Amino acid sequence: MPSFSRRNFLFTSAAAAVCTLVHAESAPAEPIIDIHQHTDYSGRTDEQMIAHQRTMGITHTVLLPAGRFYGLEAGASGNDRVQEVARQHPGEYFFFANEVPYLSDARDIIVAALKAGAHGIGEQKFMVDADSRAVAIVAEIAQEFSVPVLVHFQYGRYNTSFERFHTILEKYPKVNFIGHAQTWWANIDAKADQTVLYPKGPVTPGGITDRLLTDYPNMYGDMSAGSGLNAILRDEDHARGFFARHQDKLMYGSDCSDSVGTGAKCSGSQMLATIRRLAPDKAAERKILFENAKRVLKLPV
């Protein structure tokens, strides 16, 4: 057998250590899918948004376009812009389709975006009732293309009459709906006051949202924004049970417009930390941060 000098041994050991270090630094982080971000959000540039997502450790981002009007009340841009960013960053960015559902050409616009590669429809944030014909039109398109619909529920403003939304779930059982925003999250509480959009204090289990997630296989939850973070932090004991109960139905989203990606100004990074802290185990955490979104949105990641 060949003999090795002490010098050769030290050189070989050092080289092995360097290789190990390089491998560790180049190894991919745990994948995280963010199902809720916007282009041009409150004036944020593409470069700022991309930096924000990478600072949070997001590996895959879904961009939700605005419809023709309103800009989702945040200056968010539409179908063309989200497709542009996704084309520039293949595999890292994906997009949904959207349009104001009661416009005469809404179907044509949504279908065109779906044919261009959209993985869902939304964020549907328009002044209609939750069980209206406008919502049914979107559901019919989603059913035809086998994609989910992300819905913003806000008392007195967007997709109102939340208590009747179950009729849509029943009428379109093959369509997966993803609930989001103030009224969706306030109603984890059985004693929710519908006029209070950011309630505080202990949660009484069994609210409308809890029941929809439990009773309907086609209902899912988007964890994003201040409304999602508030719902989880207001009663952490309830949140632990909520995560355990609905770990197959919840998906991480950020929906924050800051350019920082960390700290108190960034609800997305706070929600990431909260999920990791309160999820019942690592398997549930991975479902909420990655696996559920990959499955429901049919993302090739």
From TrEMBL:
Official protein name in the record: Amidohydrolase 2
Residues making up the signal peptide according to the UniProt record: 1-24
UniProt entry keywords in alphabetical sequence: Hydrolase, Signal
InterPro entries cross-referenced by the UniProt entry: Amidohydro-rel (IPR006680), Metal_Hydrolase (IPR032466), TAT_signal (IPR006311)
Domain Amidohydrolase-related: 76-299
Example of a GO MF term: hydrolase activity
